[in-house]
Amino acid sequence: MSTYTAPLKDMKFVLDELAGLAEVAKLPGYGEATPDTVDAILEEASKFASEILDPINYSGDQEGSIWKDGAVATPKGFKQAYQQYVAAGWGALPADAQWGGQGLPKVVATAVEEMLTSSNMSFSLCPLLTQGAIHAIELCGSEALKKTYLGKMVEGVWTGTMNLTEPQAGSDLALVRTKAVRASHPQLGDHYRISGQKIFITYGEHDLAENIVHLVLARTPEAPEGVKGISLFLVPKFLVRPDGTLGEERNSARCASIEHKLGIHASPTAVMVFEDAVGYLVGEENKGLAYMFVMMNAARFSVGLEGVSISERAFQRALAYAKERLQGKDLVEGAKTVPIIRHPDVRRMLMLMKSQTEAMRALAYVVAAAMDFSQKSSSSEERKRHQAFVDLMIPVVKGWSTETGIEIASLGVQVHGGMGFIEETGAAQHLRDARITTIYEGTTGIQAGDLVGRKIARDGGAAAKAWISAVNKLDSDLARSGNADIKALRARLSQGIQAVSDCVDFVVGTKDLRVTFAGAVPFLKLMGIVAGGWQMARAASVCEKRLSSREGDSSFHHAKIATARFYADHVLVQAPGLRNTVVSGAAGVMALTDEQFLAA
Amino acid sequence: MSTYTAPLKDMKFVLDELAGLAEVAKLPGYGEATPDTVDAILEEASKFASEILDPINYSGDQEGSIWKDGAVATPKGFKQAYQQYVAAGWGALPADAQWGGQGLPKVVATAVEEMLTSSNMSFSLCPLLTQGAIHAIELCGSEALKKTYLGKMVEGVWTGTMNLTEPQAGSDLALVRTKAVRASHPQLGDHYRISGQKIFITYGEHDLAENIVHLVLARTPEAPEGVKGISLFLVPKFLVRPDGTLGEERNSARCASIEHKLGIHASPTAVMVFEDAVGYLVGEENKGLAYMFVMMNAARFSVGLEGVSISERAFQRALAYAKERLQGKDLVEGAKTVPIIRHPDVRRMLMLMKSQTEAMRALAYVVAAAMDFSQKSSSSEERKRHQAFVDLMIPVVKGWSTETGIEIASLGVQVHGGMGFIEETGAAQHLRDARITTIYEGTTGIQAGDLVGRKIARDGGAAAKAWISAVNKLDSDLARSGNADIKALRARLSQGIQAVSDCVDFVVGTKDLRVTFAGAVPFLKLMGIVAGGWQMARAASVCEKRLSSREGDSSFHHAKIATARFYADHVLVQAPGLRNTVVSGAAGVMALTDEQFLAA
Q1: Where are chain B's structural domains?
Q2: Which residues of chain B neighbour A8 with C-beta distances below 8 Å?
Q3: Considering the entire predicted model, what is its pTM?
Q4: Minimal CA–CA distance to B567: which of B543, B534, B544, B542?
């Protein structure tokens, strides 16, 4: 059985050499992020992931969370693990010191989050949602709400949820029907009464924490139709007394059932029913959707990171099996039965897993660092520049890393052969878990629409072109290299960024929205592949320098260059084809009538 | 809830216009395959699939087969469905009249098989394995074995299995350890005693039929090592009396357990333990592997067809949901909430599902017809020519259709959004079921090795070049078209076949086996995509002719041309990239040491 080992060497390489941790640490408020502190945090997180979360991942999947009479019991070991999570202060890592947080940079928190998710995705969803809720309350909530809720949530003794979806309102939140009616009460003060049904509520009910803070989208009676009439409410499971302690009175927000899902079985996905539940307005009425997007952007980044995390875990499991399973003879050397890692096609699959995971990790961490710069840079121009990059890349990190994560988890099954199809092996769980990531927090189609519409067309391609320039700047670095692998990589990257540039021009120049959106997902995939190739090229270039000055771990540096080369010929190579699909693929998309689809 | 409707219109189009059913029907012995008879068979099969098998597909998945004390109970409804299957004579369709079969062409049986598998893949595996066993006994068994077993198996009252895999012997059958010792007995006559453990035995134990005929690979005591020392034995669950009736004595072949799998839950996957079980030699000693390949080739084709079948079913389910689910507004027309099929990205996904399913179906049926020609043509040259094409294409049909089938089933989940992740929706089952198809009967890596090694390198690319010529011949037809879609398709097909041609030259010219095998799977994918594109181009060309002469269903013909165009820009477009991976991708595959894979 494979056990999780955090890829600390690669994580540190990415943090130091690609994401610019040293520069991040110089930002105001991030002085604590010294190399020693960051190392210590990563080591501790790695232990927590391997020793506490990894051992309950498969058992949690098999057992699943169980609903009974409105209560949800999480699988064996989850409660204790969550207590240890709280005790160690992991939830407080990225939060503001004002609320008891440690105020560490996003890029450091990202590496920690990757480990927790790799070792146990179902577990990690509870903190993920809590972080999102903290973020929304911090940015949009009143001082009273902040004071009452944030301390407990940062500590982790209360958890948070996002209540968006209703049966008729999924991607289309304009259709939300849950109602919120103003009310007043001597003890409760000004509040609202919330009524309606929400579905797909991750950790909407559970036994890990003493309270659950639901953030709920609903409409007041006089609200305008559509997305402009949605407000955000905080609805606690147990009402909080004025002194901050928990009342015994249960709010009328109850879990009617949990879903029977393909994956993330340990994570309870609740159907929530609100019946005149007490809720408090977050921010102003009718601005709920904008607030929700605050949570959503962070959540989208985190879901993208889930793609990286599952890929890493699936890779480690497949690698362990490939080194141990004896089957077939070496193609050239013959004679004895060898571990299957000696077979070129198994190696190709492992390299696809490894190279793409590294590319996705590098891009995610670089975007996380950009979030830090966008928040803390002293220059407003720098903040803006970084924010534009972050906005451009969030749908790419989310869409590309999750789509690729599914492919990698599926390759993980394939490396195991027949054993991969047997649940006890564990490889199938990663595929089942990964399958939700391209759906929740906005499907890949939604991400791609965001990318081509809001992030590219709206500013006439300015942010995208700024990024293209940055990639083109790297070319002069690569041109100086005499290394054959880097030369090959350079050629593919240059074709790749040209493909992106063509597609940006195409999107900016096309007036027919249907044409633009017909190619949106292939475009997103192209962006991801090329952005990943950009990071692999940066990495290879750094490694070449380290090798020539004989600094550091030469085996690691050689491996990184070879991995980048593989990525170029097996992944980046798809860029021109994707460009052609974006530019000329719309014709076939809209041609059929609805009836012509089925020729039964 | 979506229900299965056989795509009879497309099936008949492919049979008539692409697979040449009229020519097949002229072959000796196939006189019964008149248009009316074939239509009637397809209609009946379609009803059986929709009315009997489809309704127990989801329930069968949820319930699963259950093992208890060595016996296996299949899910509710399976036994009755199997009785109806036998009563209707579906199992006898492709079998020889000598054994009670109807002797219909493979290409007709293929269309029927597609329907049974689309509606219930778990159910279909029992007949699939039985057909393979019939085939092996027919070709390699003694007259006595044929007489005793074939009639009952063709009728379907006895079923068949393939017992190849052992815990240490999966893809590498040289490692088989099961033993067979010669024995004699007054009642049983000359036989062998078989001892060993076999795993992953599909329908190795079940309650559908009164007897199970296991075909088992084992070694005699004096057999040479490796694959040259493997023999094939027939081991019945219940011994058969000399008069052909079943004895009450159970053979010592028992099912020790069944596996807990990702998918095909209704299909029991048995661990079989043989302890001095009575077995009969099939053919000669030490030739078992060659015989097994007879079964395997047919089984590989059938598994490829599973890719087509699941794709069709997943497509139908996604299409029904996309037409019914209201969410979001039309990008251009705005105003009211529309069914999601109006959104370009949903339509793109549906078109990916539809176009690839049609391309895969066309290729599979054309290969099935070639099997008929290879068996029954009066000219030996024709038989040889068709056999070479079949041999070339079997790994392509198997590998490409199954890999694509997984992608299509996954797209089916995606079209459903959050509902796709909920098991009750049914979309997830197709993904779980599809996931085995790239593994059993030889993984995609094994298929690709077969393609580049045995099917291309061995004959210096002769069979591949013959096929390339056939594709190039179509170009002059396409060149005559004034249709913009066909023109675009022509350009992509021409790039595609050039890519194949480059890769064939590369494989034939490369001496380093590791280099050839490193690109084998991308090459297989390329072959599949281009072979599918070839069929879509043939189809488009036929449809253009029908349109210009105003014959037949113009809506269907228009849709086919638009679908072919879509396929060109979204699928065939990947060919040059795949070529580059095959030709220059080996460098990165073998570069790392085993230790360099993990940088923990």
Answers
A1: 455-587
A2: 600
A3: 0.97
A4: B534
